[in-house]
């Protein structure tokens, strides 16, 4: 049923995992840019899980039962999100071990059919295929629905800790535009179909 002009959009619960263990972080900048772009067409209720804030206690836990309550709450947020943004820096051709460990502790069936927007940052374009070779297999195993357009950004795409490249801004826009039709209930206005 089409949305009337007077209807209020249901907020989309978006949880973004920033897999960088450092602050400041270009990965965090990319996450914020994706959230801002999604907010242009969708009513978004966003939460960011920052690995930089939880890496040490997370790494010390061998099982979910050993996690502190605040990290358990963040896992629950990941599991209950309407849309997950999974973003991480690339080191030696893959995402950081703590990023993988976080998803090792997510419930085995918790991400089934959950839309996931993939994003990564790296020092150069030689890491650009990391989304296809590392991220998609991980989220495929978890039976999540990896969105078709992910966003990879190299150091050259940033001016310090700001998005500086028009090409990166366009990739961010396109990823958000292609994700938005999946969440018509959260649309700020009726969405047009992307060709």
What is the CA–CA distance across the termini? 21 Å
- Flag low-confidence runs: none
Identify the CATH class: Alpha Beta
Number of helices: 6
- Rg over alpha carbons: 16 Å
The CATH architecture name reads: 3-Layer(aba) Sandwich
> What do we call the CATH topology?
Rossmann fold
- What about the largest sheet? 6 strands, parallel
Order of helices and strands: EHEHHEHEHEEEEH
Query: Based on helices, strands and strand pairing, what is the structural class?
Result: alpha/beta
Shape annotation = globular
Q: What portion of residues is helical? A: 25-40%
Average pLDDT taken over every residue: 94
What is the total tally of β strands?
Answer: 8
Q: How big a fraction of the residues is strand?
A: 15-25%
CATH H-level homologous superfamily name? Flavodoxin domain
GO molecular function: oxidoreductase activity
Protein name: MsuE subfamily FMN reductase
Family: Belongs to the SsuE family.
Keywords: Flavoprotein, FMN, Oxidoreductase
Would you kindly provide a written description of the structure presented here, covering whatever features stand out?
The structure is a single chain. The protein is of the alpha/beta class and 195 residues long. It has a single domain, classed as Rossmann fold (3-Layer(aba) Sandwich). The protein has six helices and eight strands; from the N terminus they run βαβααβαβαββββα. Strands 1, 2, 3, 4, 5 and 6 form a six-stranded parallel β-sheet that branches. The chain has a two-stranded antiparallel ribbon with strand order 7-8. Strand 3, helix 4 and strand 4 form a beta-alpha-beta unit. Helix 2 packs across helix 4. It is globular and about 45 Å long. The protein starts with 11 loop residues before the first strand and ends in a 16-residue tail after the last helix. The mean pLDDT is 94.
């Amino acid at each position: 049923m089409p949305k009337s002009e007077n209807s209020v959009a249901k907020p989309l619960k978006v949880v973004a995992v920033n897999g960088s263990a450092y602050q400041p972080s270009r990965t965090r900048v990319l996450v914020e840019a994706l959230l801002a772009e999604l907010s242009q067409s969708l009513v978004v209720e966003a939460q960011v899980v920052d690995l930089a804030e939880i890496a040490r206690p997370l790494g010390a836990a061998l099982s979910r039962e050993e996690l502190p309550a605040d990290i358990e709450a963040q896992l629950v947020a990941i599991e209950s999100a309407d849309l997950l943004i999974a973003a991480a820096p690339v080191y030696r051709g893959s995402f950081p071990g703590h990023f993988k460990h976080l998803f090792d502790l997510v419930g085995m069936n918790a991400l089934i059919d959950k839309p996931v927007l993939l994003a990564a940052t790296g020092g150069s374009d030689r890491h650009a295929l990391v989304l296809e070779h590392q991220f998609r297999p991980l989220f495929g195993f978890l039976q999540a629905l990896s969105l078709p357009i992910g966003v990879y950004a190299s150091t050259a795409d940033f001016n310090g800790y700001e998005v500086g490249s028009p090409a990166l801004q366009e990739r961010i826009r396109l990823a958000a535009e292609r994700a938005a039709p999946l969440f018509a209930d959260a649309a700020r206005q009726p969405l047009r179909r992307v060709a």
